[in-house]
């Protein structure tokens, strides 16, 4: 049975994270705030100005645990890890098959189809749960359009056309996503499409923060099974870009983050006062709200659902790992094609 190891998110400015025997200890202003046994942790993620001792870095590397550095808004800065693990034969197969145009296009189509199908499910669920006739009609119409997009995706002749279809579907999805927000919250959480780097409204700020954590989980999943996280099929390869992790996370955005963002807003777990508007219009979560969102994300990963292929209950946090394994099997030719995770 695969165990979900915890990710420790350190967010308090100027905290000092260090090794104490076989535990990780976090001090703030020379006072101990938390102490965690290392065998409970899978990775450590530091937001902003956090100090990490060299001894802890060495121990994490020795134990195969990653240290990820993000800026205060959750944007990736660096990753510290030990020697590359995984089967070199799988990595060779990965690089070889990424150079096969037909195979690469089929994997990319599967990633996009999984994303669009799951986005459609989010809209359909929103329509079912809405008490507003106009909202139900708008969400149902958008879901129908996404259904038509799925048919167009299959006919995409190349990656450029596929990316164009994906962009159109994503634009339509984000246009309707705010309709799922409760009527009394829509004014404060109005959203004019997807904005990032920086997010320009509160809802986008929540999404960007959640996406940064999902990205880290998908990169870890790819690495854990021996795939090269830098070499994707859908996303273009660029220096320093974890293209395969971006591919893998597409199908999970609606499942792991978008629904969670809607829940946090609709339940008023995050409120307008939890945000900071920077000069120039950038919107970020303040420290207390970031901690709340991290906690909600961790709790979401512990929930279980029935995996449609395995037909058994699995923790949501294990989905990226499972899908990375399916992708590895497709690359090795053990299964025919890659089947994305589809939310019911």
What is the topological layout?
Layout: E1 6-10, E2 16-20, E3 23-28, E4 31-37, E5 41-47, E6 51-52, H1 54-62, E7 66-70, E8 76-80, H2 88-98, H3 101-129, H4 133-154, H5 159-176, H6 202-224, H7 243-249, H8 253-266, E9 275-277, E10 283-285, H9 287-302, E11 304-306, E12 313-315, H10 319-332
Helix pairs in contact: 3-4, 3-5, 3-8, 4-5, 6-7, 6-8, 6-9, 6-10, 8-9
CATH topology label of the largest domain: Four Helix Bundle (Hemerythrin (Met), subunit A)
Q: Give the CA-CA distance, first to last residue.
A: 24 Å
Relevant CATH superfamily of the largest domain: CRISPR-associated endonuclease Cas1, C-terminal domain
How many domain units?
A: 2
> Main β-sheet, in a few words?
4 strands, mixed
Order of strands across the main sheet = 1-5-7-8
Uncertain regions spanning at least 5 consecutive residues: none
Compute the gyration radius: what is it?
20 Å
Total count of strands: 12
| Helix-residue proportion | 40-55%
**Global outline:** globular
Structure classification: alpha/beta
């Amino acid at each position: 049975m695969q165990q979900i190891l915890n990710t420790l998110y350190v967010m308090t400015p100027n905290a000092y994270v260090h090794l104490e025997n076989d535990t990780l200890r976090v001090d703030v202003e020379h006072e101990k705030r938390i102490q965690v046994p290392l065998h409970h942790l899978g990775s450590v993620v530091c937001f902003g100005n956090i100090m990490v001792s060299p001894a802890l870095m060495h121990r994490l590397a020795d134990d195969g645990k990653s240290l990820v550095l993000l800026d205060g808004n959750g944007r990736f800065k660096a990753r510290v890890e030990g020697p590359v693990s995984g089967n070199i034969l799988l990595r060779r197969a990965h690089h070889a098959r990424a150079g096969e145009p037909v195979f690469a296009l089929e994997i990319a189509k599967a990633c996009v189809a999984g994303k669009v199908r799951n986005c459609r499910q989010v809209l359909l669920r929103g329509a079912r749960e809405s008490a507003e006739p106009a909202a139900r009609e708008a969400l149902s119409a958008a879901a129908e359009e996404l259904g038509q997009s799925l048919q167009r995706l299959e006919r995409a002749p190349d990656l450029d056309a596929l990316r164009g279809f994906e962009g159109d579907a994503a634009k339509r999805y984000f246009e309707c996503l705010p309709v799922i927000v409760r009527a009394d919250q829509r004014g404060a959480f109005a959203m004019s499409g997807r904005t990032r780097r920086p997010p320009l409204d509160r809802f986008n700020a929540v999404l960007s923060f959640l996406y940064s954590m999902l990205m880290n989980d998908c990169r870890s999943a790819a690495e854990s099974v021996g795939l090269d996280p830098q070499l994707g099929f859908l996303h273009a390869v660029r220096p320093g870009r974890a293209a395969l992790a971006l591919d893998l996370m597409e199908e999970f955005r609606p499942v792991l983050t978008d629904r969670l963002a809607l829940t946090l807003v609709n339940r008023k777990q995050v409120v307008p006062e939890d945000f900071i508007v920077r000069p120039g219009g950038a919107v970020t979560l303040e420290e207390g709200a970031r901690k709340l969102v991290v906690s909600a994300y961790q709790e979401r990963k512990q929930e279980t659902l029935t995996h449609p292929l395995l037909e058994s209950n699995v923790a949501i946090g294990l989905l990226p790992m499972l899908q990375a394994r399916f992708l590895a099997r497709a690359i090795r030719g053990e299964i025919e094609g890659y089947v994305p995770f589809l939310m019911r």
